Amino acid sequence: MNIENKQEENTPVVKQTKKNNWKIASFVLGILLVVSIISSTGLLSISGNAAAIDAVDFINNEMLQGQTTATLEDVTKENGLIKATINVEGQATPIYISNDGKLMFLQAVPITGAATAATTTPTQNSPTTQPPVDVPKSDKPVVDLFIMSHCPYGTQMEKGLLPVVKVLEDDIDFNLKFVYYAMHPTQGEVEEQLNQYCIREEQEDKLLDYLYCFLEDGDGERCLAETNIDTTKLETCVTTADAEFGITSSLEDKASWLSGKFPLFNTDKADNEKYGVGGSPTLVINGKTASSGRDSISLLKTVCGAFNNEPEACTTTEFEAGSPTPGFGWDTTAQANSAAAGCGY
Questions:
Q1: Do 199 and 255 sit in the same domain of this protein?
Q2: pTM for the predicted model, two decimal places
Q3: What is the domain range of residue 184?
Q4: Residues 94 and 155 in one domain
Q5: CA-based Rg of the chain, rounded to a whole angstrom?
Q6: What is the pLDDT along the chain (345 residues), one digit of tens a residue?
Q7: For residue 62, which of 108, 104, 18 has the smallest C-alpha distance?
Q8: Rounded-to-integer distance, Cα 29 and Cα 111, Å
């Protein structure tokens, strides 16, 4: 597969100097994303359970669109609103719904000082929401992206970052790494990550081609053939890595699973511990966790900010304005994405 042609096909260009309105949009959407759930001619008031069920149906049908599934865990009343706790990829997330069932708020932001302070404390359930840090500069930035291969938000970050890796090429040291546990084993995540690990380790010159292909539809078998991966070499590596890191043994021994829910995947265990990785995606630049929008324009700016002296590509590269959609497929959307969304326990 020709990566440059793939990039041209999927990313019509705009001027790099275009104002990044995603920042404003992301802030607004993060505070209040309002969607219509019931028509204006509906009932003036409905039960909390019914409103919550409608909200979850809307999230699954219109937002997640089959990439993953949200389920309803609990419904309560809070501050005059219906509070529904939903579960997405094993992570419990609260949403708020107006009493008439017409508006949904994906995030409530307290305006009292004490409440605001409480909501900004990092928790185990929000591993990708660390506060922004100053990324150290270097002559050749090291860019590590920790993902789960079937996490829709990990693939979203990959689709934004890979074009950046392509244009910066040898100016950066890019490393695809894996979170220390898998949340999608029934989707073949463990086997896919073993393949990607071995391609990274032994056929690195084909890794970007393979990832571009895999992110189209998640069909790893097709992509192994299309990108001319040496499958004999790959199978030998997979067998060795499986034994070294105990991947299959962990998958088969549920007693060893993280919190009894998720099989361990320890190919990059040391770096997970070193950087405090908790979920997918986690972006680490020059040894520091970095926050960024997931579109290529934002990620180019984030990575280029880590150079002592920016290469020419940082100022001359043009990318499409728009954010990659979560999951597989190279579609983009004008809607800003939240850097907080991720797969994490």
A1: yes
A2: 0.65
A3: 3-19+129-344
A4: no
A5: 21
A6: 444 444 444 443 434 433 344 333 333 344 334 333 333 333 333 456 677 788 878 887 767 767 778 877 667 777 778 878 787 766 667 788 887 777 777 655 555 443 333 333 332 223 333 334 568 999 999 999 999 999 999 999 999 999 999 999 999 999 999 999 999 999 999 999 999 999 999 999 999 999 999 999 999 999 999 999 999 999 999 999 999 999 999 999 999 999 898 999 999 999 999 999 989 999 999 999 998 999 999 999 999 999 999 999 999 999 988 889 999 999 887 665 555 678 986
A7: 104
A8: 17
Q: Are residues 253 and 168 located together in one domain of the fold?
A: yes
Q: Which CATH number does the domain housing residue 47 bear? A: 3.10.450
- Asked whether 320 and 182 are in contact (CB, 8 A), the reply is no
112 occurs within a structural domain: no
Look at residue 295 and tell me if it is in a domain: yes
Domain membership flag for residue 300: yes
- φ, ψ dihedrals at 282, nearest 5°: -130, 120
Cβ neighbour number for residue 248 with a 10 Å cutoff = 16
Number of separate domains in the chain: 2
Residues 90 and 136 in one domain: no
In a domain? residue 310: yes
- Helix/strand/coil (H, E, C) string of the chain? CCHHHHHHHHCCCCCCCCCCCHHHHHHHHHHCCCCECCCCCCCCCCCHHHHHHHHHHHHHHHHHCCCCCEEEEEEEEECCEEEEEEEECCEEEEEEECCCCCEEECCCCCCCHHHHHHHCCCCCCCCCCCCCCCCCCECCCEEEEEECCCCHHHHHHHHHHHHHHHHHHHHCEEEEEECCECCCHHHCHHHHHHHHHHHHHHCHHHHHHHHHHHHHHCCHHHHHHHCCCCHHHHHHHHHHHHHHHCHHHHHHCHHHCECCCECECCCCHHHHHHHCCCEECEEEECCEECCCCCCHHHHHHHHHCCECCCCCHHHHCCCCCCEECCCCCCCEECCCCCCCCCEEC
Structure tokens at 18: 């275009």
